[in-house]
Design a protein that fits this description.
Blueprint (H helix, E strand, L loop, with lengths): L1 H12 L4 E5 H13 L3 H9 L3 E5 L8 H16 L3 E4 L13 H8 L11 H12 L8 H10 L4 H18 L5 H15 L6 H12 L3 H5 L5 H17 L4 H7 L5 H14 L4 H17 L1
Parallel strand pairs: 1-2, 2-3
């Protein structure tokens, strides 16, 4: 959303006609135009744009009539060599419920994947945000928060707001110990540990295309070992299972082997974009099934 507004601002500064809308507003205006017999004014509004920016296009799913309106708007602008910028919370390939003629046109443009922020970026965001508070927040606390919340900037900022508010309410200084307690509450409310070990193994198996018995087995192929290590990491992060219990689930592995697998992922997840993306995608799929 911020990037779309920035594009619109830059375009307007160059004298271009920029029209920004959310998919929900586009839908509501389209339905209202049909109901009131004002489709011509609707077309004029969107087809006269030099740059049309539509936010959250995934909300077109299930709205067949609006998809028809969007399709013709897209075609008219494209044929006029105008610019369209579309945002979505998922890749174009995952918008399979939309009409194929729409997804094919979206895929024909320049598709840019906005990666999750790195540890350094998350720390920078926290430090910038912390400067607005009238209290001291230790570096170790910000590092803990940055490592704890990896994918959602709003949740990252919300966690910082929470610990500052608790500190002010209780009249206590912010420390790593108090933050760990507060974050345990946050985790319990927004990320309940309802995922069982079988669901995690299934999600990892599906993501990497590795049979579950291979994850539990002795195989040493690179993809199998990587999948097994990710499974260990998620079993530790998303459940209350001990390292010994995880070892038993994964074919009777001992405590030190499981710890090595966990540390292997934990140490690389901030350095390896592909690994971080794998873990986040698996987590997203887990949240959809719980």
């Amino acid at each position: 959303t911020h990037l779309l507004h920035a594009i619109a601002h830059e375009g307007s500064s160059r004298g271009l006609i920029c029209v920004y809308t959310t998919c929900e507003d586009f839908t509501n205006q389209y339905v209202l135009a049909i109901r009131n017999g004002a489709t011509e004014s609707f077309r004029e509004k969107y087809r006269s744009a030099d740059i049309l920016l539509i936010d959250d296009i995934q909300f077109l799913i299930g709205k067949e009539q609006t998809q028809e309106g969007f399709f013709h708007t897209f075609n008219a602008l494209h044929m006029s060599r105008k610019q369209l910028v579309i945002s979505s919370d998922r890749p174009v390939t995952d918008l399979t419920v939309l009409e194929p003629r729409i997804t094919s046109r979206l895929a024909g443009g320049l598709v840019t994947d906005i990666q999750t922020p790195t540890l350094e970026t998350r720390l920078a965001i926290l430090r910038s945000k912390s400067s607005t508070f009238d209290c001291e927040i230790p570096d170790e606390v910000m590092e803990y928060l940055a490592q704890r919340v990896q994918s959602n900037i709003r949740e990252l900022e919300g966690s910082l707001n929470k610990i500052v508010a608790l500190s002010q309410f209780r009249g206590t200084q912010i420390s790593l110990e108090t933050v760990k307690i507060a974050m345990a509450d946050v985790r319990g409310s927004s990320h309940p540990k309802m995922v069982n070990d079988e669901a995690i193994l299934t999600a990892v198996s599906n993501h990497f295309g590795i049979p579950k018995d291979h994850l539990k087995g002795k195989g040493r192929r690179k993809t199998t070992v990587q999948g097994r290590h990710v499974a260990i990491y998620l079993l530790r992060q998303e459940t209350d299972l001990s390292l010994s219990a995880i070892g038993k689930i994964l074919g009777g592995r001992d405590h030190s082997t499981v710890l090595h697998g966990y540390d292997r992922v934990a140490s690389r997840i901030e350095l390896d974009d592909t690994l971080r993306d794998d873990v986040l995608r698996i987590r997203t799929n887990l949240m959809k099934t719980t």
